[in-house]
Amino acid sequence: MGQLLLSAYEIGDLINQSAEVAEYAYWKSVVDRDEQVRGLVKKFAKAKEQFEECERFGRFHPDYNAAKDNVQAVQRELNGIDSVVRFKAAEQAVDDLLHDVAAQIAGAVSDTIKVPSNDPFPKGGGCGGGGSCSCGSGGCG
Hints:
mainly alpha, single chain
């Protein structure tokens, strides 16, 4: 078990030294220092809070659509900033790297081990992946 943990720390160190993590850290620092982004993040949080308040009462709340539109407008504004776009791309690259490492480790143990992903449209088969499953229950979970 000790050797296994040591190997896990070594893999973690290699990931931390990767180009993907360096790119992520760079763009995170750029976004964190950007006054425009910070202002929009605060504006987004406030708009989201207002929408959640409306959402508690359902889509028939008189301000529901306006609150939803406001959240989407601020989100579009944030997504229009180059540093935010680059940060999100770097974040996705790190997520993909971590998923690939987890998949390699899982595959080395067994072909039937599920590897969680943040991808809303998973590509693989098996349980939770939209493919066939050999668990026999009609659904694994």
